[in-house]
Amino acid sequence: MSSWTRAQMAARVADDIPEGWYVNLGIGMPTMVADHVPETREVIFHSENGVLGMGPAPEAGQEDPWLINAGKQLVTLRTGGAYVHHADSFAMIRGGHLDLCVLGAFEVAGSGDVANWATSENDTAPAVGGAMDLAAGAKRLWVMMEHTTKDGRPKLVRRCSYPLTAIGSVRRVYTNMAVLDVTGTGFAVVELAPGVTREALEAATDAELVFPA
Amino acid sequence: MSSWTRAQMAARVADDIPEGWYVNLGIGMPTMVADHVPETREVIFHSENGVLGMGPAPEAGQEDPWLINAGKQLVTLRTGGAYVHHADSFAMIRGGHLDLCVLGAFEVAGSGDVANWATSENDTAPAVGGAMDLAAGAKRLWVMMEHTTKDGRPKLVRRCSYPLTAIGSVRRVYTNMAVLDVTGTGFAVVELAPGVTREALEAATDAELVFPA
Amino acid sequence: MIDKTVRTMAEAMDGIQDGSVVLLGGFGSVGQPDALIDGLIEQGAKDLVIVANNAGTGRIGLARLMELGRVRRIICSYPRSAGSVVFEELYRAGKLELEIVPQGTLAERMRAAGAGVGAFFTPTAHGTRLAEGKEVREINGRPHILEYALHGDVALVEAWCADRWGNLTYNKSGRNFNAVMATAARLTIAQAHHIVPLGELDPEAVVTPGIFVNRVVAVPPKGDNT
Amino acid sequence: MIDKTVRTMAEAMDGIQDGSVVLLGGFGSVGQPDALIDGLIEQGAKDLVIVANNAGTGRIGLARLMELGRVRRIICSYPRSAGSVVFEELYRAGKLELEIVPQGTLAERMRAAGAGVGAFFTPTAHGTRLAEGKEVREINGRPHILEYALHGDVALVEAWCADRWGNLTYNKSGRNFNAVMATAARLTIAQAHHIVPLGELDPEAVVTPGIFVNRVVAVPPKGDNT
Tell me, what's the pLDDT at B182? Predict the structure, then answer.
């Protein structure tokens, strides 16, 4: 079975982000999306730790240890960016000012529920970070993840089995196999990766799928 | 009967403000207090409209129309001052960061209740401004006012008849006749103005008075 | 290229609907978005709810808007002040609804709207007639009252400098309600004394990041030569 | 003359009591008040409640304080991260209480403490296990949960520049939790890279006005030559 690489997934997400949006990219795979937005298209990236207008990683020799993103990687500030403190940064998130947040996830349900912070009820000290704020606060929540777990279990599900991050928040999911919109009762397929068949997608998904007519 | 002038009252209040306090002075008579704090004693004045470290009125020719206080008078900024927005300015007030607020009042009760914003229940459009925030928020609330109304009615009372600004907030009252501490059930006389007798004070007060032994 | 600057007042006011909640910045005469208020008068929206610290003075600006019968309700801390003649006439005639809010609660309710806080408990106004009908709860031994976020459909603010991303700075006490109102509305329109090239504002000193601002129009203050 | 600068770490730490709630600024390694944490280790206060974004890494700083058995409880958003070995050991052994709070709720709870808000309703974490036992209320059609202000007895923060009034600025992403924690404690102690003469900080660009700061100690960051 063919499918999108991570870079292709990141490029696919980037394609859907129009100029002028304020966007927070979650730690991990979503961070790659920024590299696929052309410089000529002004998208303003936000990092929870108080950076609005975040730019790419610094060039060698230009690193500033005082400028990191939420994933603790060294970054830069674009011309026009600004620094704020944590409460103001989360006011942007929680007040509904971000046009988009892209998060990774363990599971997404057809209801839009998302689980991305704790892998089981027995994990007593999981790290939530800003995930719940982002999931509840952004105008749109997209999830970017592999379609299944490493051992092949579906991550698009009828009901999340892992502890929830937020209820009914996800609008769209980008996986290595497809782009899917959350319908509330399942997922509507927007696009299949090259070589991925309807049957393959159904086999890898534990939720209702609606295909374009 | 002798008593303190307004300037003497302001000087008396100023005498009780130690260096390093953060102080908000209400519109009207309390504003005069700042002029009686010697420049060598650093007291940091706060104005609700976002000025911390407010200085005196500008000298002629030095006026800046962008720098006013809560009473809409032109002021200056002391070296070391800072500007903030309204929510941050009131965070200072409401978060208990001001050491002192000095307000004028219509009535103060021995319980510490204060009425200073509306003169009757029928005044349907009174202007509250920041009075309730200041009265509830400052670490200490002092009131500075004439001891009686123009027609001689007591303003230190058993129970406020005017609409309240705050309950149980006032710590100390400075009038033209005396300095008095709020006890919870009345007022303890700290100091009488020159020429004011115990009898005169009692006649001008409608609340329990405790005199020093 | 993102460019939030607009060339005309008509563009700046485009789409403001009848019945909107309009937040008006300024405190006293400092930081009032006078040109935008005139733009709103010209634009024609009516049945407005106005949130401002004062209820207008004289017969210009907000007072003029009220005199034209375009304001249904005003939410403010200090309605009756020297020169608030239009307010007093309309209010006495029963032609204007009034909600008086303590100044700090007013600022905090808009801060809450901007920050995604639905409601909050504050000690301010407890035991006063401005707390009548409000939920009371004791927290840490002190009674608090419940106040709700106050959202604007539109905020009209005055800034000192702005860039094409909508980053704003203010001048001295002109910051006042402007910075908090800018966060609390769906559509924030700023009039700015200076439009500066992107990058000219110090990223450590931007007061209102552009995320909160939708449109910027250049309006040097009257009589200003800088 | 007001002078909040102190000459020694012992003076900076004076009076911190056993059982204190201590707010620790920083995010990742940026803006961490390392010298003050070492000062607190030296000072000896125990039975502490620590509020920080992370639960310490390696065996220095906060991790060292925990390893010494001086921390009873930690309130944070991201306890388990690369190198949080001391936390994991103590937590697994039942020697450390943990309260996990969403990062924005953590910041907002301290902002509430600093701003006199007793509690507030937020949609964040509704329907998750971090909302268990919390009051739920629907506001504008959306369920919110009630969160309480989080007050510190002490805040330890790292600033870039400070003056003798305690005005602070920060450096880039070093602002993070520092500025909000500075407002939320009874005793705020700042380590500053530079102590500058009063008046050198732009009044338009002070991030933490001195009203929130009690003590300032000069601590250039390690390896810094500026």
Answer: 98
Residue D22, C-beta contacts closer than 8 angstroms, at least 6 positions apart:
D16, D40, D48, D49, D50, D51, D152, D153, D154, D155, D156
User: Do B and C touch, counting CB pairs below 8 Å (3 needed)?
Assistant: yes
Which residue in C has a C-alpha nearest to residue B75's C-alpha?
A: C173
- B208 among known catalytic residues: no
**8 Å CB contact of C176 and B50:** yes
Q: What pLDDT sits at residue B140?
A: 98
Contact B50 C108 (CB under 8 A): no
> Can you read off the two tokens belonging to residue B88?
């941050």
Tell me which chain D residues have a C-beta less than 8 angstroms from the C-beta of B83: 203-204, 206
Instruction: Give DSSP secondary structure letters for C166-178.
Output: --EE--GGG-HHH
Integer angstrom CA distances of residue B79 from A166, B42, B52, B64, B196: 48, 11, 11, 16, 41
The two structure tokens encoding residue A175: 């996986």
Domains of chain D: 5-118+150-218 (3.40.1080.10)
| Residues 6 or more apart in contact with residue B89 via CB below 8 angstroms | B46, B47, B48, B49, B50, B51, B52, C107
d(CA C47, CA C55): 16
Return the amino acid letter for D202.
Answer: D
**Strands (DSSP E) found in chain B:** 22-25, 44-47, 51-55, 76-83, 100-103, 107-109, 114-115, 141-144, 156-157, 170-174, 178-182, 187-192, 209-210
Contact A193, A4 (CB under 8 A): yes
Predicted model pTM: 0.98
In this prediction, does ipTM exceed 0.90?
A: yes
Q: Is D6 exposed, middle or buried (0-12, 13-18, 19+ CB in 10 A)?
A: middle
Asked if the C-beta of C17 comes within 8 angstroms of chain B's C-beta atoms, the answer is no
Task: Say if the Cβ atoms of A133 and D27 lie within 8 Å.
Answer: no
Q: Which chains touch D (3 or more CB pairs under 8 A)?
A: A, B, C
B95 contacts: CB under 8 Å, gap ≥ 6: B137, D113, D114, D115, D116, D183
Burial class (CB in 10 A: 0-12, 13-18, 19+), A38: exposed
For residues D193 and B185, give the distance between their C-alpha atoms in angstroms, rounded to a whole number: 51
Neighbour tally for C8: CB within 10 Å: 10
List the 44-73 stretch of D: residues with Cβ below 8 A of C.
none
Please give the full DSSP string across A32-65, using - where no structure is assigned: GGGGGS-TTS--EEEETTTEEEEE-PPPTT---T
A72-86, A135-149, C19-33, D212-226: lowest mean pLDDT where?
Answer: D212-226
| C212 inside 8 A of chain B by CB | no
Catalytic residues of A: 48
Contact D107 A89 (CB under 8 A): yes
Q: What is the DSSP letter of A9?
A: H
| Burial tier of A205 (Cβ tally within 10 Å: 0-12, 13-18, 19+) | buried
| Residue C149: pLDDT over 50 | yes
Q: At what angle do helices C176-184 and C103-115 cross, to 10 degrees?
A: 40
What residue spans define the domains of chain A? Answer: 6-210
C32, C219 Cβ separation under 8 angstroms: no
CATH class assigned to B6-210: alpha beta
CB contact under 8 A, C210 and A44: yes
Chain D residue numbers with beta carbons less than 8 Å from the beta carbon of B82 are 167, 201, 203, 206, 209-210
